[in-house]
Amino acid sequence: MIVVRSILFNLAFYINLILQMVVMTPVYFLLPRKKAYGVAKNWARSNHWLFDKIVGATFEIEGLENIPKGQGYIFAPKHQSFWDAYALLPWQDDPFYILKRELTWIPLFGWYILKQRMVPVDRGARGRVMAAVMERAKAEMKSGRQLIIYPEGTRRPPGAPPEYKYGIARLYRDLQVPVLPVVMHPGLFWPRRKFLRYPGHFKVRILPPIPAGMDPDAFLAHLIDVMETASDRLLLETVDANPHLPLPPTAAQRVAELRTRGV
Residues 222-232: what's their mean pLDDT? Predict the structure, then answer.
């Protein structure tokens, strides 16, 4: 049954994406930039509905009160699945990404990116180019936007040893804004590089913001400690609440380690 539901969901997901782009593209490009973001947010909400009705996977968000109001900040979530690449957009007022410039060259998709004033960067760039990227990011932040960045850089399987990149510490130092850590385990329900989707219920936990002004090295150490401690606790909660889940090896090993330590 899981295989059938997974196939149906994947088909519905991509059909929904194509239909939304065909139907909503004229609306998107006619609306003012910020209002046009509603198109992407509604697409995310429709995917949540499909995930619930076809797969039987639901989620809830804890800690919405921790989101800073009336200021720019760095949104720093765990990244395990394609789910978390779009899922939290409806709860962000006006987010943006620093992304590789090649994405802006993709027809239609690249135009969507450019309209939302994303910050493109040549990953091999140095010196003045990177300084210009940082100035762009600062300008967007001053208008109260939220920079979304994954501290580990890429998707990691649930329970995998952390691999945080120093880039978030540099952004924290240069942008001088709070960082909002977020932990979650959607990779247990929507595994990376697999087509299977699993039913169940999971939580997204928004942690208290880390204020600006710390030494960047101290900040990174604190961020890792806070996020990994919260992530471990949430992993155990998620596994206990969904005993039917087939755990990937990384998650099974981490759960066993935490049980042994009495966490």
Answer: 97
